[in-house]
Design goal:
The chain is of the alpha/beta class and about 260 residues long. The protein folds into two domains: about 160 residues, Rossmann fold (3-Layer(aba) Sandwich); about 60 residues, Putative phosphatase, domain 2 (DNA polymerase, domain 1). It is about 40% helix and about 10% strand. A six-stranded parallel beta sheet has the order 3-2-1-4-5-6, with helices on both faces.
Amino acid sequence: MSTPDDAAGQRTPEEMPAAVFWDMDGTIVDTEPLWNESQRRLVEDAGGTWTPALARSLVGQALDHGARLLQQAGVRLGVQEIIDHTMGDVIDGVRRSVPWRPGARELLAGLRAAGVPNALVTMSHAPLAGVVAEAMPAGSFEFLVTGDMVLQGKPHPEPYATAFDVMSRRVEGLQRLQCVAVEDSLPGLESAAAAGLPVVAVPHVMSLPADPRWELWTSLVGRLPDDLARAARRLAGGSGRRLEPVAGGPHGTAP
């Protein structure tokens, strides 16, 4: 595990990541208990058995994939019906009280203050992602990529590849190895890594394996934007690929 860098010294713009791509469920907000409770009720109401293994199999997955797993567990509803039902329950829970993950809002605020653009890349659909985004300060995210916007969900690279493509139209000269994705689940890590992004892994519900494609952190508490930049440089160096500077500076926004 890495630890926050305590080295003194003034931080420069070159020590900032060029862009940060955030997972939502389990990374920014702890919605997993809300999802699990709604899914458990559906399975048990259908006469099925809710198990820890089933709960783990749903973490970080696309909602349509999770709905099919619930059908296999006995839920006699259509895929979209399952998605609408469970997501409605989670939206209600978030509106009652947003379950923030420790350190996430503070790190995001630090990135915004440093001029680093952020995007949300989540397998939750737009209605839930919008509720979470609205609970944050205006301008926290440049845009959202949600599960209902892509054909292939995590662990497929499409969600993060889509987010990078959109961000590259906003940030001049953007390169993947200058960016960082922040994730809590193995499907999310696989998705971001397959899209060519350095990834910081912050385990929450499930432990995560060590892998040269990502850097494991125990928490986001106390983390700063330059911690993300250093992680990206370490991961880029380990890939054997040269980290090129962004044209016009690390945060030059394209017209």
